[in-house]
ShKT domain-containing protein (Pristionchus entomophagus), 665 residues
Amino acid sequence: MQPHLFLAAVLCTTIAAEDVFTVLRTTPMDEQHLQLLNLLFKEGHKQNLDFWKSPTGIGYTVDIMSTKDKIDELQGLFNSLEMPNNRTIEDVQKLILDREVNVKHRKDGLGSFGKRMRDEAGVANKAKYQFGEYHGYGEIVRWLNEIAQEYPQYARVLSIGTTFEGRNIICIKIGTNTSRTDKKVVWIDGGIHAREWGAIHTALHFIEQLIVGYENNDPVTRSWVDSLNFYIVPVLNPDGFEYTRSDVTPMKRLWRKNRAGITCNKDQWFRDRCCGGIDLNRNFDFHWGGSGSSDDPCSEIFQGTSAFSEMESQAVRNMMLGAELSGKVQAFITLHTYSQMWIHPYSHARKSVPEDIAELKSVGARAVAALEGVYGTKYRFGTGADILYPSSGGSDDWAKAKGGAKYVYLIELRPGEEVWDGFVLDARQLIPMGKETWEGIKVVIGAVYSTEQSNLQRDQITQAQIAQRTRPGRPVKHRGHAIIGRRPKHRVRRPKERRRVKIVRSGRVEESLSSARSVLHRPTHRLRSQPIRPPIARIITQRPIVSETTAQPVQQPAQQVEQPRRPVQQPQQQQQLSQNTRPVQPVQLTQQQQQAVFQQRQQQNFQQQQQSRFLQPAQPQQQPQQQQCRDTSPWCRAWLRQNADVCRVSSIYMSRECRFTCRFC
Ligand SMILES: *[C@@H]1O[C@H](CO)[C@@H](O)[C@H](O)[C@H]1NC(C)=O
Ligand SMILES: *[C@@H]1O[C@H](CO)[C@@H](O)[C@H](O)[C@H]1NC(C)=O
Ligand SMILES: [Zn+2]
């Protein structure tokens, strides 16, 4: 079939500026559906189809925003192809008004979240920020400045550059003695995409956690802030962010790019049609201009005229390669919304990973487990190209390949598939999202910290050895004892008494650290007799993590409290839903559509045959499912159909979602 014929039919109507915007969610069920969606994704911006969530694979939802009439047509098309779909947001502007404008008058608990935060925090941050709500750039910068004023000994505000519209890109540096530049660095940014307000809030939440932890004398936070430097840029694209705040019309609120290079032309009805703005996350110099980016200034994924053409991406480059950070960045975390994915490099092409992938995977998998352990929020884990789609010129790929960063993760935050409001995330989810994500981030910081400590230790041992060797006439066999006798100068500072922690949330990290330290504090002769491994390899999490080779089931996490789930929808139900077909498409297409449906059925049959090959030993008829052994996602079979290896490759995710299908039980 020729998908572009459908496309032509769908896209040939025009848009009235006042039109209502609607979001349609659909799920490709086979290769043909996916092909059509990919084509729409690539070409659809020309007709104002805005993909909130792009096609990634068979069985994964796609969210498309457009005007109501266009959505009507799309829905007709999808129905005719038996592609399950649902209008998740009938009127986007109304949702924006309800969620983000009229929210002040609501009585249902934003205040109580704030209160709970303070209660848990104990000593409060003297600089106040109303968490659990959205605020503008001015308010955010005011708060950061206030922190720096209150806590000058470990917090400083700096501008890492300016934007096209002349705003400062504000970064807060957190680390004891802010003049020191010799420490290892943890970089965190949010808001590179303007509409992803939840990412900005989450970055701010991390800042709050560091300040509050430090002020409360939390030993872990203290050791991190003392021995590392955090550079946090909560709003990397302030022009775009302020633009999304400037109006409630969906065309503005859902702006993604920066605000440079905008050109407007009158269309044939003398209406302004504007294009431009650069997708900053396609503007970095690693496989710039490759797949998953566009040279069309009207596209949502416009890569810019050259790599680093944009002031915002230049600012990141200049910081990362400048004397202050160069060679020191041990973690680079960039926050996005939405999809609930924890992504490691590389994302420019499928099946492409850096050399130290084993470490990135092990730390990332533990981070995901920690995050999921809080409310049971499910994350997928892998490279962007493998679990999302290939996209070139991303800041994360660049940070890994050229920016010298070690642990690089791009995190797509809430919501996931079970919540339909996408970028217009209910503010009540903000604090839970911040809390759970912080648990994941703490794992990464902990890994950086313990690697750093073990390196320090090793350096000191080496120095001691050199000192021993240069001492003439000393018998070899005594060397080890002599070293033990010499206390290394910068011994790891060890809090008086490692608490036997009962705290559930921070407990894991603390215990991990204490076990890591106990490795470090072994007598040095034992360290010498075996190669020194970074202690991260030894950290034991409380919940077993599935290793790819053993594929053991992971314990079910505590149910998410903030976000009660809808009952899992079965594929049949969705099929039925899609039977409510609207009268379909222009007559001249009917024949092709029929042909398409026919081909699609054939393909389905073929795929079902393929699928049954994988599933042979575990057919439901042959072996009744036990109560606790069942798939919680209706898409397991579709995933498996697409990739026979999926259970192994995505074991962390799949072992929960698809226990039965992947035979994890
Ligand atoms: C369709 O979307 C609406 C939100 O507009 C949601 O309430 C409903 O549960 C969805 N139905 C299905 C079957 O997903
Ligand atoms: C902070 O660090 C700088 C540079 O390393 C050093 O010169 C200064 O003495 C330190 N200040 C304090 C209070 O330790
Ligand atoms: Zn994004």
